[in-house]
Amino acid sequence: MATAANTLSTAVGTLKVAAVATELETIFRAHYASVLQAAFRITGNLPDAEDVAQAVFLRLARGGLDDDRIRDIGSYIRRAAVNSALDLLRSRSVQAQVPIEDDSIPSHSQSSPEQAQSSAELRQRLRKAIAKLHPRTAEMFVLRYVEGLDNPEVARMMETSQAVVAVTLHRARARLRKELRAFLTSEAKSCLEKSTTTNSTR
């Protein structure tokens, strides 16, 4: 009798493992691309984005599916990708190879090499500035302005009110503008000095 019970228990355990593995594979196939893209937009390069995606799904495989707090697996994974990417920015200096989306920054394809270099430096500065924000503020900012969610979606995903989201984003934008303005002023001075030097040698 005991042997039969043990055999049944083993079979049930095997079925559960198989069911979880199947569920994980389904989730992986459905969300890997979006997780990779989210991480890519934040970190700026593919190797780091792949590391983030791997970490997200490994964490999920280690017990995330049993978390009762997960109501929407898509939103959960998206937030996990954003936070993991932000953690990576905070933990080390990441070289900016692909820009964070920002309409105020000129396109590389329509700029001179000098402008392209300045634009890349500006994007890298933006990444660093975002990484310095409070983690929850940085997450809100990225979800809103990098991932393209609207305020109600951000509020729902982060379980807060739209008013809190609006105020938090307003303060985040003000802080980022201040930091980037200082960088742009410095860049303008540098360009002026280079221009003056070049003209004086002609």
The CATH class of the largest domain: Mainly Alpha
- CA-atom Rg in angstroms: 23 Å
Low-confidence stretches: 7-17, 94-99, 102-109, 195-202
N- and C-termini, Cα separation: 99 Å
Largest β sheet strand count, sense and barrel closure: none
- Secondary structure tally: strands: 0
CATH superfamily of the largest domain: Winged helix-like DNA-binding domain superfamily/Winged helix DNA-binding domain
The CATH architecture assignment of the largest domain turns out to be Orthogonal Bundle
Helix proportion range: over 70%
Run of helices and strands? HHHHHHH
| Derived structural class | mainly alpha
How does this model look, in words?
This protein is mainly α and 202 residues long. The chain has helices at 2-43, 46-61, 73-91, 113-132, 135-146, 151-157, 162-200.
Topology, pairings included?
Blueprint: H1 2-43, H2 46-61, H3 73-91, H4 113-132, H5 135-146, H6 151-157, H7 162-200
Structure in a nutshell:
Helix content is 77%, strand content 0%.
What descriptive keywords fit this protein?
single chain; Rna Polymerase Sigma Factor, Chain: A; Arc Repressor Mutant, subunit A; 2 domains
